[in-house]
Amino acid sequence: MTQPARVTLPATAHEPAVAVPAIGQGTWYMGEGPASRADEIRALQLGMDLGMTLIDTAEMYADGGAEKVVGQALAGRRDEAFLVSKVYPWNAGRDSAIAACEATLERLGTDHLDLYLLHWPGGIPLDETLEAFERLREDGKIRRFGVSNFDVDDMEGLYGRPGGDSCAINQVLYHLGSRGIEHALRPWHRQHGMPLMGYCPLARAGRLQQDPLTNEVVNTLAAEQGLTPAQLMLAWAIRPVDGLRDLIALPKAVHLEHVRDNAAVLQATLDDQAVDRLEAEFPAPFAKEPLDVV
Ligand code: NDP
């Protein structure tokens, strides 16, 4: 059996480098109500059993409800997980970020996050957010911090501030039908040795010119490779680029067959020809485009 695909987050001044699965589990729309709770917990636990131990959540999702579901899924096995949550931009102030993180930890039933992200750029000065992230780190409440929905200019602005260059990751929209980050943002990350996380890897949300899951080339290629179209999309999203795998895809799945399919991609490989055919069908833009978001 091949080694499961992993991405390494570089060492920081305070943490050693850590290898995480290249496919994690998203939780947007989990925790919306009691009817689906048991299914959601089971899905996350199965995903962990199958190696998708990175879980991505946010205070935004179901108003904290998703964090509670994750907390239940992690009961008795917190140490197996690499846990990521996000703070609303308007809660990312010097003191408000501390309070938001503590509420998040309470809902998750844990004393620390492995990674805490600013959900998107907002009005609160970044210096305040960085100060709060550093305090949270000193207090052992977060191990690393990162950002989400930051474009190149935002990353440059962050990097220019005290402590900004300790940012561990940027979580952005990325799927076969939305390859805008490849033009400038992904090269910026490569240059700075900072991995990316790709959300909506199955293109189930947001604006779409065409749905890759129903595209004929995707379906034909998937059949040739012994994969489902969704598996092919995930395998493409986490493909090594120039020999380096540095993007973590975050599918969200509640159906157990989806969870199994997604986890199986950790062992899948795509040959260069398949990648070329997919990329010819879904070309990257020729010029810089505004960052795609949902
Ligand atoms: P996805 O692209 O992961 O699509 C999720 C949908 O795809 C669900 O309907 C799910 O079904 C279905 N699905 C999952 N696996 C498969 C499969 N193998 N075959 C067929 N269908 C499948 O979209 P999301 O919008 O949920 O994004 C993923 C995660 O990224 C979020 O949950 C969240 O954690 C994060 N995110 C972050 C954002 C940010 O601003 N930082 C913004 C948006 C998302 P089912 O659940 O029924 O199994």
TrEMBL record:
InterPro entries, A to Z: AKR, NAD(P)_OxRdtase_dom_sf, NADP_OxRdtase_dom
Domain NADP-dependent oxidoreductase: 23-279
Pfam families per record: Aldo_ket_red
Membrane-spanning parts: none
Gene3D superfamilies referenced in this protein's UniProt entry, alphabetically: NADP-dependent oxidoreductase domain (3.20.20.100)
Domain of life: Bacteria
PANTHER family associated with the record: ALDEHYDE REDUCTASE, OXIDOREDUCTASE, ALDO/KETO REDUCTASE FAMILY PROTEIN
Annotated protein name in UniProt: NADP-dependent oxidoreductase domain-containing protein
Species assigned in the record: Halomonas salina
